[in-house]
Every structure is written in structure tokens, then in C-alpha cells.
Amino acid sequence: MTSRRIFITCFMLLAALASCNRGQYHKLIEAESFEVKGGWVVDPQFVEQMGSPYLLAHGLGIPVENAKLEFDLPSGGRYHVWARTKNWVPGEWEAPGRFKLIINGKELKTVLGTEEGWNWQYAGAISCRDVNCSVELKDLTGFDGRCDAIYFSTEKVMPPSDPKELLKWRRELLNESDAPPKSEAFDLVVVGGGIAGCAASIAAAEQGLKVALVHDRPILGGNASSEIRVHTEGITWKADRILSMLNTVWWPNGSPDAVYDDRKRHDNMAKYDNISIFLNWRAYTTNVISDSITSVDAKHTSTGETMRFLAPLFIDCTGDGWIGYWSGAEYMYGREDSSKYNENWDLHKELWSPAQADGRVMGSSVLWRTVDTGKPAVFPEVPWAMDVAGDYSATMGTWKWEFSRNDLHQVDDAEHIRDHMLRAIYGSFSNAKKDPANANLALEWTSYLVGKRESRRLTGDYIYTFMDEKLMREFPDAVAMEERDIDVHYQQNLKDPSQPDFLSEALFYKVDHYYIPYRTLYSKNIKNLFMAGRCFSTSHVGLGGPRVMHTTGQMGVAVGYAASLCRKYSTSPRGVYQNHIKELLKLIDDCSK
What is the SS3 assignment for 492? Predict the structure, then answer.
């Protein structure tokens, strides 16, 4: 064989080998794992619906600072790049959440965030001489662009979009196992770090329990935190000593003063050595044997690290009742018909309790506020918001900014509900800016978290109702008391179709006081599960009074103490009611001392 033929043969073999290797290299980057997030924020609210936390460019109309990450590709070469993203307001206008990728300092031409639904959008191709690489997210609008993940592949094959296939593909690519690689055992696991969850943790810790508090945000407080900014309402009753460490002073809803109460809350929680606080950890499943939970699995919302929390007892303070839901606990959702619990009230009866049960519940709010800058402030045009806002004009949000609809589920459709409220806010403020009197006003703050009032309600041994409140029924196992009016919300357009669909009103029923029985605070069919907060065992109308944070905090104190009795007597939450209720009531009485 001549040298020329040898050369050609070798060249063809090398080309064939290169062809065989083509498509073998890929890299998946979860956007929430970016080391430098810039002005982008991690949004983990909708993991169960769309599959993952994601980065959100929540700039209120001003493009946010780039998010950046340095990483290594598996090999140098030519890569195709996709971003999993979403046009959150599809229509004839330009997508509001547009952004671009910058790879190794070079801005790719494709504008992302322009396709409807959560899907992979092709960003372009890049060539990398070595494995070292950098990627940036460049926000173009400041209007809530979102990026879930970025995928690099030497083969131009788009990743799966079907949620189940995507989950399987993701886990295989990231080499994730069914069981978290690490676990830790506690006496009690509390999931949800709102006022109820914090109160439950303190009460249990003061009785000597080793407690894990798992919370999916960087800040404790739930609706009372500076991320949502609803001041605490109701009375503290016998739980005042504990709740005064956690609650807020009175400030207008949406006030930046919420940050001072954040600090107080975190400082007080840190005093308890036997409370391990896991911030930015989102529970994603439970493990159950027969009718008992053995553990809860959670994932860090930025790193993706997973962990298993083992305990003999669990408290669901998630608001949406996730721990109960995953465990197979019985639960309720929507409005019962008025005859089921005799929840009749002649005044506006169809808004109070309908003749036929339906899926409507009290809605979710997104609070916001403006500031006078002392000089003219420009706000961009938002044509994509106007079919929601209409001609409604406003310069601040109150509790009445709330959205619920019979065909929307407050859990399953939560992202749509949040986005609807953002459009209402941006559109209404845009209308207000047309008035010369508002020339100096700028959006100071708008939450991107939904503040929910009602969703799933877990079923206990007793279901609390309007009649219990109306009759001021005294229970032998009363562990909380409230003096606040019963307060049931409905959308204003149900009564007046000319009103916007994002504003609510309230029906108030005055009553002197009412009590909450312990039997509403543990699951009927999952024997080691407590619940405290708005997911306690109640009817829709029954929730109208005790859903506020001082009352739910009292619930938290009660179940925290009850958990200590479960350990003391090797019994269940139901066993505490059957055999140790007097001791529980004494612990609650002594709480204020």
C-alpha cells in the first residue's frame, strides 16, 4: 500500500471515529445553581407543576443584572444550546420576559422566553476550544423572564418536554438516585417555616425535642415575611410568649418594615440549639409505611442537593397540605354546599356558602407598593398586561388584590394565578402613570410570591365549621381561641360584573369569640401527622375566621406541645386526645408563664 493510500485510510478512520463520538457529549445546567445570580431570583413555588425551581428576572420593568456561572464542559468542540423557558404572556405583542444567553463573553443572537408554555427553546450553536466555559443570562425587559435550565449537547437533539419524561431524563443526566444520599433523624420534623411552623418548632424544642424545621425560602415567616409582607392578625391568647417572638408589629400590608420583624424572628429561632433550621430546602415527597410517615425527602432550591428527614412525628405547616397530600391523608378543597354543615346565612348566601358545592376558594394576593422619587419616573408600556387590567388605575396594592376563579386551582394553577396578578399590577400602574399627578411615582416593590388564603384542608377527627364559630361552641379539647370576625372573601366581579376579576371583597360575620379543638390539628388517617395553619381540618366557611397568623400560631404551639406528649407516652396524636388532653391543656396554660 502506498503512503498516499495509507494516509487516506488513516484520515477516513479518524473521521469515522470522530463521527462515532459526535453526540456523546452533553451538559445540563440548572439555572437556579448559578453561583452569581445577579438580579435574578430563585422561584421554587411551582416545582410540582413545572418540574424545578427557576430563575426569575423580577425587575419591575428595569432589566436586572446578569446571572453568571463558570463551568466545565465534558470536552471541547461544537455544542448546540437550549434553554428551558416560557413566554408567560403569549399573544400578538412582544413577549414580556425576553432574555439572551452570553456564552464565553459572546452574546447569542436568539431572543429567548418567546415561546408559549414551559419548553426547550433553541438558543444557537457555539464552539469551545477547551472545557472551560461561562454562561450569563442577560435580561432584556425586567418583566419576569424565566429560565429553568440550559442544555449543551454536541448532537442537535432537543431534550424531552413531557413532564414525566423530562423528570426521568433529568435524573438520569444528573445521576440522581431515588433515595437521597444523606439522611438525618429527629424527634420531630416540621415542614413549613411560617408563623405556625416556627411556633410549633419552639414549643416542641422547649419540651426537649430535637426538631428539624424545613422551609423552602431564605426567610422565615411565610405570609408575614418581608417577601410577602402581610402583618399578623388575631389574638395570641395563651401563646403570647412564643408568638411575640415571631409575629409582627402593625404595619400596612406591603411595608418594607417587615424586614425588622424578619430579623427578630430569625434571632429568636436561633436561640434554640435543638432546632435545626433548613432554609431553602423544599420537601418533594414523603415515605409511608401503612398509615405512618417514616420520612420526608427535600431538595435544596439552589444546589439540588437532596436529604432525607426521618422522625416518628411530622407537622404539616406548608399551607397547601403537601405532607398530608403526598402521604395519602384525606383532604378537602373548595366550597361545601350550604346544607352539608348547615352553614346558611341569608345575607349574600350564594357568596357565603352555595347551594351546590364547587371548586371556588378564597384567593391568593400579590402585594405591591410605589414610591415618590421626587423626579419624573418612566414606566415602560405594557400592552401584554392591559387585557387583564383594562382601564383600572392604581398606585398601590392592598389585601383586596386577590385572584380566585372556579376553574383555577390554587395549587395546580398557582403560576398562572401569580402571573395574572402581575399583569393586573403592571397594567393598573401603567394606567395610573397617565395621570400627571403620578409622574414621580415608581414601583418600589412587588412580591413575586403568592400569598395564599386557602387551598387544601387536611381532614382531622373533627371538621371545624361556621356553626362552631357562630355558636361559640366550647370544646373540651380547645387549644386556640380567636375574637376576630369571620371573614370570607369573594371576587368583586361575582357581585358586580363591571369590576376587575383581580379584586376581592369580604363578607364579615360578627361573633364575640370562638375556640379551635385539638382534634382539627391531626390527620384522620395518617396516624403520626399533625397539621397547623390554614391546612387544618375545617370547612371553607369555617376557615374564614381562624386562617390568620396569630390563630394559626396558636395551633402551632398546641401541636408542638402535643408532639412532646407523643414522645413522652409513646403514643400518637390521637392518643394525646384520648388519654392526655388535660396535660396538653396544662402545657398551653403554662406557656404564658
Answer: helix
> Helix (H, G, I), strand (E, B), or coil: what is residue 60?
coil
Cell of 34: 448559578
3-state helix, strand, coil in the chain (%, to 5): 30, 30, 45
- Per-residue HEC secondary structure of 11-23 comes to HHHHHHHHHHHCC
The ranges of the chain with pLDDT < 50 are: 1-4, 6-22
Write the secondary structure of 88-150 as one string of H (helix), E (strand) and C (coil).
CCCCCCCCCCCEEEEECCEECCCCECCCECCEEEEEEEEEECCCEEEEEEEECCCEEEEEEEE
Q: Estimate to the nearest angstrom the gap between the alpha carbon of 36 and the chain centroid.
A: 23
**What domains can be seen in the chain, in order of their start residue?**
23-172 (2.60.120.260), 183-335+453-466+518-590 (3.50.50.60), 364-451 (no CATH)
Helix (H) / strand (E) containing 225: none
Residue (of 239, 228, 235, 186) closest to 209 by Cα position: 186
Cβ contacts of 419 within 8 Å, gap of 6 or more: 88, 89, 144
What b/e sequence results for 456-487 when a residue is b if at least 16 CB atoms lie within 10 Å of its CB, and e otherwise?
bbbbbbbbbbbebbbeeeebebbbbbbebebb
The pLDDT, as a whole number, for residue 269 is: 98
The CA distance from 457 to 361, in Å, is: 11
Distance CA 385, CA 420 (A): 9
- The closest alpha carbon to 318, from 293, 342, 282, belongs to 282
Q: Are 289 and 215 in contact (CB under 8 A)?
A: no
Which DSSP category does 238 fall into? G
What local confidence, expressed as pLDDT, does residue 158 receive? 92
Return the H-helix or E-strand segment holding 295: strand 292-300
Contact predicate 481/472, CB 8 Å: no
